[in-house]
Amino acid sequence: MGNVENLERQVKDFSPEELAAFRSWFLAYDWAAWDRRLEQDVKAGKLDALAEKALRDHSAGKSTKF
Q: Which residue segment(s) compose the domain that 19 sits in?
């Protein structure tokens, strides 16, 4: 049995309190992983083209205020 299957089995056995704590922990963990990935992509220049297009569109009057 793989790690994911073991984890699934264990999570199914959590009490409601344990599940709430796990959910809270996992949400924080997942957002931190997302932030790290975004930071890596920014440093690698993977978002530069999108930023340049957004700035061009804004300069051309194609953006709106909230």
A: 3-59
11-43 confidence digits (pLDDT tens)? 999 999 999 999 999 999 999 999 999 999 999
Tokens of 64: 């709106």
Q: How many residues belong to the chain?
A: 66
Alpha carbons 57 and 63: distance in angstroms, whole number? 7
Q: Is residue 65 part of a domain?
A: no
Q: Is residue 19, in this structure, part of any structural domain at all?
A: yes
Query: Domain for residue 41, yes or no?
Result: yes
Split into its structural domains, the chain has a count of: 1
Of the candidates 46, 50, 41, the one whose C-alpha atom is nearest the C-alpha of residue 58 is: 50
Report the predicted TM-score, pTM, of the whole model to 2 decimal places: 0.67
